[in-house]
Amino acid sequence: MNHSNEIAIGFSNIVFGLAFLMVAASLLTWVERRLLGFWQDRYGPNRAGPFGVLQVVADGIKLLFKQDWIPPFADRTVFVIAPAISMITVMLAFAVIPVTPAIGIIGNLNVGLLYFLAMSSLGVYAVVLAGWSSNNKYALLGGMRAAAQMVSYEVFMGLSLVGVVMLAGSYNLTAIVHSQQHLWYVVPQFIGFAVFFLGGLAETHRLPFDLPEGENELGAGFHTEYSGMKFGMFFIGEYIGIILISAFTTVLFLGGWYGPILPPFLWFALKTGVLVAFFVLLRAALPRPRYDQFMAFGWKLMLPLTLINIIATGAVMLFWSTS
Amino acid sequence: MNSTFDISAIVAVLATVMTITRASAVHALLYLTVSLLAVALVFFVLGAPFAAALEVIIYAGAIMILFVFVIMMLNIGDVAADLERAWLTPSMWIGPSFLAVLLAVELCVVVAAGGYGHRAGSVVDARAVGVALVGTYMLAVELASFLLLAGLVAAFHLGRSMTRAD
Fold first, then answer.
1. What is the pTM of this model?
2. B55 vs chain A: nearest CA distance in angstroms?
3. DSSP class of residue A212?
4. Cβ A45 vs Cβ A30: under 8 Å
5. Which among A231, A279, A308, B142 could disulfide-bond with A226, CB atoms 3.0 to 4.6 Å apart, if both were Cys?
6. How far apart are CA A29 and CA A59, in angstroms?
7. Count of alpha carbons within 13 Å of A155, Cβ hemisphere only?
């Protein structure tokens, strides 16, 4: 294969990936409402188009025609940058996901896992800057909560992956998937899996961990002052974040594209889809904890648990390698 | 590869200059973050992907966020920016500018002489960094962890006495 051919394939991967992601994320807004309706014994949006699918289009048109207002007391530049950061960081993180051996942009990056953690830690800026630049006390409180929540849960998220890295012996995501050919890491690393998923829930600030935007105490939290498409970017960014965490959980703990009979891509999509539905189910099932309970839960339960997990993994590996 | 290095190096220098000259603390911090990201790219191009990732995760993603967090908590507004503007008088710039010009001349001379061709030959991966940390530099790592533990205990102590005073 010559060089220009490689570039063409890479480029088409990027374009199709982004297009697929945008469509999937906007469809997810509808899927979530239908699923919530199903679990709460009601219909959800079912009028526009077949099964209400066109609700997505209606919502998009509505957002586009809303007045895009920037408050006069806001810090203009930062106010505009913040929603862009929120979308860019989550979309960039998708670059390292090896969907199948053939589909993926830089799935072979030798620090792929760290790249994902780096992007998710940069995502904090979006929320913090949105809260600060709005110059509104509810937004500021939301931004501060978001900063504390995301920076703390990032710690556990990173530590929960150390076990996987130890077993796979690599930060390369493709290598991590390859090493799960016979046994998914969700079995030996169940604690890591659970902590990573909870950390992901906190990183995407989804219910029940949506304390930065808890509407009964903070208005809408960090995006109180946002309207129109800028709000839409935060909104879609959150849904892309859900897909991102689900896709990474699939890659790291559920064996990526491996599975019998069905083609690799379908296996990957299926596993990711089930995890996304689980995200929605958690929202439907669980109440929001109080902020101090939530932080205490992180530092007093998740942190010791991940550290014990690392020590135990190391001990077992040492035992196996010597015996 | 060369142009990536050059562009990110220039971005790093420009962003750092903006960091120093901004009056608003948050804007200055954002430029500093850009500068750190550019430095991460420089590391990456030089063949240190692990260091590049850590630069983004730890500096840009954790330390700078904490800085922004503290500035948000203090909620200093336009008053502080005006004060900062008043401090940045032209006479303030003489000393730093002189030193910066010296460095700039040095850089120009080195670039003109073509003496910056020492781009790393091999890629230093995560495994190599790990082996070096717990092998060759064991003592330094242990000392650093002592320091961090001391910091942790101190922070805990300060936090405790604050709640008792309430």
1. 0.87
2. 9
3. G
4. yes
5. A231
6. 9
7. 17
Q: Which residues, including other chains, have CB under 8 Å from residue B120's CB and lie 6 or more apart? A: B46, B47, B48
Tokens at B135, concatenated: 């092998």
Q: What amino acid is encoded at A89 in this protein?
A: T
Dist CA A83 CA B56 (whole Å): 20
What is the model's pLDDT at position B163?
55
Range of weakest confidence among A115-124, A142-151, A196-205, B113-122: B113-122
**Using one digit for the tens of pLDDT, what is the confidence trace for A79-138?**
888 999 999 999 888 888 888 887 777 778 888 899 999 998 898 888 888 888 888 888
* Chain A residues interacting with chain B (CB cutoff of 8 angstroms): 75, 77-78, 109-111, 114-115, 117-118, 121-122, 124-125, 128-129, 131-132, 140, 143-144, 147-148, 151, 154, 158, 171
Cβ–Cβ below 8 Å for A118 and B33:
no
- Residues in B touching A148 (Cβ below 8 Å): 69
Rounded to 5 degrees, φ, ψ at B123 are -85, 130
User: What tens digit of pLDDT does each residue of B128-154 get?
Assistant: 888 888 888 999 999 999 999 999 999
* Chain A residues close to B73, C-beta within 8 Å: 144
Instruction: Give the whole-angstrom CA distance, residue A71 versus residue A76.
Output: 8
Q: How far is CA A114 from the centre of its chain?
A: 15
Contact B61 A124 (CB under 8 A): yes
| pLDDT tens digits, B75-92 | 776 777 777 777 777 777
Could you tell me which of A181, A156, A323, A152 has the C-alpha nearest to residue B65? A152
Q: Do A128 and B66 touch (CB under 8 A)?
A: no
Distance of CA A212 to the CA centre of its chain: 16
